[in-house]
Design a protein that fits this description.
Elements: H1 2-20, H2 25-36, H3 40-64, H4 70-94, H5 99-126, H6 148-164, H7 170-179, H8 185-209, H9 215-235, H10 241-260
Helix pairs in contact: 1-9, 2-3, 3-8, 3-9, 4-6, 4-8, 5-10, 6-7, 7-8
Length: about 260
């Protein structure tokens, strides 16, 4: 019975990811903690590899359509990957299963979910602005306001993702919109998803080395999520985006408040 429940949870999260583009970590981690009673460190570690696999497919598809600016991905990764490794070292030193570390994870996860809810609500209320033509390759569009900003924000996202598995989705998109205001939205999404793949893979494998990954659970979640993402992406044009994102923001906000108040 638990196996079926995990597959259905993966399927539901996959549909929402396909509909909204919001990272699965924002949904899967709180579901595992609250819905199934999984320890936070196991939920985070398992979800990181879950995100790496699910985002890899999207990254390949976007790269084939030439919607990934690898220069931006490299700039973000220059900050995020070292920050992820440093966070993993700290977790190894203090012990991911330590009660104090568990409390830190749940508190930071709550804040990350509240930030994700705010970013999701912002995009829902702002709607879809007409971006410049995707075919445009103006080199200035891939230059940040300052060269150090992508590295600094990448480091912040890297630490956040490694500690909570949340941050590489809606938060990453908003950060990129602020750093690269002239970049078309499809290329912003492409860079965000492509950057999330090496980050979640490094963080997930690091958690695996700490014993923080439940491999059978990961397999069940992927079994449900992959067809869910396929279905959700095809329902996207038939579902009111503002309503979907608004409800999702409320759900993430509730989960964030609940985690912060633990």
């Amino acid at each position: 019975m638990d196996s079926i429940a995990f597959i259905l949870a993966g399927f539901a999260v996959g549909i929402i990811v396909g509909l909204t583009g919001v990272g699965g970590g924002s949904l899967m981690t709180p579901i595992l903690i609250f819905g199934f009673g999984i320890k936070p460190y196991l939920a985070v570690g398992t979800d990181l590899l879950f995100a790496a696999v699910t985002k890899a497919g999207g990254s390949i598809s976007l790269a084939r359509r030439r919607l990934v600016d690898w220069r931006i991905v490299a700039q973000l990764a220059a900050g995020s990957v070292p920050a992820a490794l440093l966070t993993l070292w700290l977790l190894h030193r203090h012990g991911a299963a330590d009660p104090a570390v568990q409390r830190l994870m749940t508190s930071v996860l709550g804040v990350a979910l509240l930030l994700t809810a705010a970013a999701t609500l912002y995009k829902a209320l702002a709607g879809k602005a007409a971006p410049p033509p995707v075919a445009s390759r103006d080199p200035s569009a891939t230059r940040a306001r300052h060269w150090a900003l992508p590295v600094a924000f990448g480091a912040l996202i890297g630490a956040l993702v490694t500690l909570t598995s949340v941050g590489a989705g809606a938060i990453g998109v908003v950060v990129l919109m602020l750093l690269y205001p002239r970049l078309p939205l499809p290329r912003i999404v492409g860079a965000d998803i492509a950057h999330a793949v090496p980050l979640t893979l490094v963080a997930g494998l690091g958690h695996a080395s700490l014993g923080s990954v439940d491999w059978p659970l990961l397999g069940l979640l992927l079994t449900g999520s992959l067809p869910g993402i396929w279905l959700g992406s095809r329902l996207m044009t038939k579902t009111p985006e503002r309503l979907t994102r608004g409800l999702l923001a409320a759900l993430l906000g509730y989960a964030g408040l609940k985690l912060v108040s633990i």
